[in-house]
């Protein structure tokens, strides 16, 4: 029996910046996160990049031999609707499940889907009372980059907290770096809108 898809509506509130390797190592030492784990994101869209043009994203995340489908669609400037659920494979045929087909059609995705990018992340997480801080090493198309993400779990002055972390590596937060999918797409020759969800 298929597990039902989970729907989460949340205010997307996160800060993220790219780091160099030295800055990354300093922050690992400072934050002492939990041991890193590996996950692979495969991103999908139509040939016409329907989701990308509408600020959404579709991925299958592989972690510990499990596959998780996630569709993110933008409700407004601050809110993403997020649908997710387990699937049994990591290619476009996973979207043939009836409930996923129904969901995609409901959000205007009616054309065939294809994989547009793949990105592997080694992620180490440090959890605070108000946020989840992710230190990521990302690899895609022969490129490696380093990133810190500060994601709210409770309302608070996260920008000040994030800046206090960045002060240790002499970075002033100004704006979020491009999303992972946008960076992976830029390298693979299909530039994505920076507003695309992860």
What does this structure look like?
By secondary structure, the protein is of the alpha+beta class. It has five helices and nine strands. The chain has a nine-stranded antiparallel beta sheet with strand order 1-6-5-4-3-7-8-9-2. The chain is globular and about 50 Å long.
Keywords:
single chain; 198 residues; alpha+beta; nine-stranded antiparallel beta sheet; 21% helix; globular
Tell me the layout of helices and strands.
Elements: E1 6-11, E2 14-19, H1 21-31, E3 37-46, H2 50-53, E4 57-63, E5 66-74, E6 79-87, H3 98-106, E7 113-127, E8 131-140, E9 143-152, H4 158-166, H5 180-187
Antiparallel strand pairs: 1-6, 2-9, 3-4, 3-7, 4-5, 5-6, 7-8, 8-9
Main sheet attributes: strand count, strand direction, barrel closure:
9 strands, antiparallel
The number of distinct helices, counting runs of at least 4 residues, comes to: 5
The poorly predicted ranges are: none
Oligomeric form: single chain
What string, H for helix and E for strand, traces the elements in order? EEHEHEEEHEEEHH
Please state the overall shape, judged from the principal axes of the Cα atoms. globular
Structural class of the helices, strands and pairings?
alpha+beta
Strand order of the largest sheet: 1-6-5-4-3-7-8-9-2
Total strands: the figure is: 9
Residue share in helix: 10-25%
Task: Round the mean pLDDT to the nearest integer and report it.
Answer: 89
Strand content: 35-45%
Span between N and C termini? 29 Å
Estimated radius of gyration? 17 Å
């Amino acid at each position: 029996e298929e597990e039902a898809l989970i729907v989460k509506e949340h205010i997307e509130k996160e800060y993220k910046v790219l780091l160099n390797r030295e800055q990354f190592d300093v922050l690992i030492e400072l934050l002492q996160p939990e041991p890193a784990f590996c996950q692979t994101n495969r991103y999908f869209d139509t040939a016409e990049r329907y989701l990308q043009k509408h600020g959404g994203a579709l991925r299958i995340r592989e972690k510990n031999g499990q596959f998780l489908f996630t569709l993110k669609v933008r409700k407004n400037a601050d809110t993403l609707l997020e649908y997710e659920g387990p699937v049994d494979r990591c290619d476009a045929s996973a979207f043939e499940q009836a409930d996923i087909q129904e969901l995609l059609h409901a959000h205007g995705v009616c054309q065939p889907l294809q994989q547009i990018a793949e990105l592997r992340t080694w992620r180490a997480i440090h959890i605070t009372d108000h946020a989840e801080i992710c230190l990521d090493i990302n690899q895609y198309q022969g490129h490696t980059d380093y990133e810190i993400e500060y994601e709210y779990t409770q309302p608070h002055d996260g920008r000040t907290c994030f800046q206090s972390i960045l002060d240790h590596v002499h970075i002033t937060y100004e704006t979020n770096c491009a999303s992972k999918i946008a960076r992976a797409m830029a390298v693979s020759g299909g530039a994505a809108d920076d507003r695309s969800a992860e």
